[in-house]
Amino acid sequence: MNLRYRRLGHSGLKVSEISLGSWLTYGGYVSKQSALDTIDRAYRLGVNFFDTANVYRQGEAEQIVGEALSRYPRSSYVLATKVRGPMGELPNDQGLSRKHIIEQCEASLRRLGVEYIDLYYCHYPDPDTPIEETLRAMDDLVRQGKVLYVGISNVSAGQIAEAAAVSERYGLHPIVANQPLYNMFAREIEQEVVPLCEKLGIGQVVYSPLAQGLLAGKYADVDRVPQASRASDKEGGQAVRSWLRENYLLKSRKLHQTANEWGLTPSQLALGWTLRLGNVASAIVGASTPEQIEENVKASGVELNEELLARIDQILNEA
User: In the annotation, is 56 catalytic?
Assistant: First the structure.
């Protein structure tokens, strides 16, 4: 099994095409041992890119990811986490102010058990904080060696352009990664975000490429979901049910049939389709078992020819 690697934007950093996330899983419905085993299997399969965030289970996901990776050389993996969401009830316990960014970076470093974060994301915009303040704080962390690369997430093309302009104007460390929602049923970034990021040298690290398991064939109908899954979690259930629509299920079944006809699994088809865009550096999957990450990694290097891509578009464009 040969996992491929791509450059992250215009940086020199190489990340695995398939990366392992921890939202809704580690510290959630997945047992700690299963999480440790899954991360271990991912690493042994060649996954070098691991994604988490301070708000995932209020730091518990970071602790589990950090513990799992502690057995490996720090230089052998790329670790990403995020800042923005609420970590307490006080006024400054959330946001992208200098105070919150600096304090939460220190807290994340402690939970992860590392001396630096490879990629630090602004999780989503903060309208209450000037973007210059945010980017200067991130730049300071880079200069201090606590962060190596800066990323943004859940932003519009206009917000990306503004952030890039501020970074260039003040000579700040450039943004190298954007983390957006992207899958066969959520293609909005193709219109403006991807072309702009290609011009600016920002790579996409996409989340939910399997639409919370729908595109992997995990759910058969709107009303029936497996009990031992992220759908059994309160937050996870809301995320899963947002994709459980009759038209999505119908198209998913057709896509699964197409995958079988081409000798692929549903997840290989969906992940291969996501990675067809050169601006996508990596697709984050949320595997809860070693077997799941092994299946997902097989999508690396899958190339979909024009005939298959046309068939996929036909299915997706059906009413």
Answer: yes
